[in-house]
Amino acid sequence: MKKNLVTCLLLLSGTIWAQQASTQKNNYTAAGKKVTVYTTADSINLRLTQTDNLTFSASKQPLETEISIFVEPQKTFQTIMGIGGAITDASAEVFAKLSPVKQKEFLTAYYDKKDGIGYNIIRTNIHSCDFSSGSYTYIKEGDKSLKSFTIDHDKKYRIPLIKQALKAVGGPVTLYVSPWSPPAFMKDNKNMLKGGKLLPEYYQTWADYYVKFIKAYEKEGIPVWGLSIQNEPMATQTWESCIFTAEEERDFLKNYLGPTIRKELGDKKIIVWDHNRDLMNQRANVIFSDPEAAKYAWGMGFHWYETWAGGEPMFENVQKVHEAYPDKNLMFTEGCMEAFNAAKYQYWPTGERYGKQMINDFNNGTVGWTDWNILLDEKGGPNHVGNFCFAPIHADTKTGELIYTPSYYYIGHFSKFVQPDAKRVSSAVSRSQLLSASFINKDGKMATVVMNQSDKKVTYSLIIGIQKVSATVPAHGIQTLVY
Predict the structure, then answer these.
(1) Domain 82-419: which topology?
(2) Angle at the Cα of 440 (from 327 to 19), degrees rounded to 5?
(3) How confident is the model at residue 16, as a pLDDT?
(4) What share of the chain is helix, strand, coil (3-state, %, to 5)?
(5) Domain locations in the chain?
(6) Which family does it belong to (predicted)?
(7) Given the residues 232, 240, 249, 352, the one annotated as active site
(8) Is position 232 annotated as part of the catalytic site?
(9) Has 141 been annotated as catalytic?
(10) Which of 93, 306, 334, 352 is catalytic?
(11) Is 0.70 topped by the overall pTM?
């Protein structure tokens, strides 16, 4: 018994040593490193502009009167999958109205790593959502057998745009799919709109529907990484929507969708919740605490609209889910600036909203971040129920011009410089004027994002160990430091 105990202790110490050795492989040093600074600021008309070249030098003990950002590359956290946006029917229909020159400009702006901002995540809808020109499904109404299933509708606009986006990325893409509502006959309210619930007798039929959709898209040459179970399962909307309580989503996943996906499609990733941060902890507790349901769940998706009822964004709820269920992944699956108004195309707080959300979400354990529509028209649509919103890029279909909003540049400060498989590293600020997040890419290059929330420019020191550089970020500006 004693011999076995000694053997176990030796094995355990060896495991601990191996883990420490693995941690120590990241021997990043800032000494002598060059720093390239990219800045976006409205006050001095900068947009992802290279503004400075700096060099690390010896650092002394920082004073309380100085503003500092402290980065520790040896302390790494989650691996980043990437950043992207949704290709909806609306985005695809607007894209089709652009000239070939503007289409190329658009694809480059989002998906090119060098001349654009390097998106590599795509979300798309399973049949119609509010950002479609009308409600539709892939089957004839009442077809319980699903024999009439066809994705011909999507072949006109959406599939061609997705294929062009995949080509523009030129590398691995994480594409996942989400439904807004089952067909009307499968629901208790007999309506795709205005909430309602999936009838129990259609649980298996609906699970089979996801499989048919994914297989059909993959037959078109579009690889599907995963799916979310239901977009916003606690919201009764005027558009396509369907309610699942936490227990209903758990049981649908455990008894129907999970086994069906695994049997028919193998290891597709399944995302639960896909709704706001306010109730995400309760949903996580119900689903992830059930081993038979949790084994099918890759992780949890969340949105940022919890402020609709008043109050501030509930960033800490993301961290609490991550803390309670560290083996489950967190993905931001949707956010946009609501209530479209063309007079606010260049409204700067829109960009700042993105910057604040992204910094907090990544610092709280999020592995991927997905914006909503990648493109909308000059009315904030098309949207068949009048729920018009902003996108990072709009197209004026009357003039054929593209309009880049502040959110495009704020997102770009992350997506252009934080590569897939980067790891977040420890990053902290000494004063509340600034927000910061830091990442180390696979090639060993660091990227630190710094956002100034204040009305005055801020001079700060970026400190790594006994090395530092000093930089100045304009009022209400954002910077990425690459080093």
Answers:
(1) TIM Barrel (3.20.20)
(2) 50
(3) 32
(4) 35, 25, 40
(5) 33-78+425-482, 82-419
(6) Belongs to the glycosyl hydrolase 30 family.
(7) 232
(8) yes
(9) no
(10) 334
(11) yes
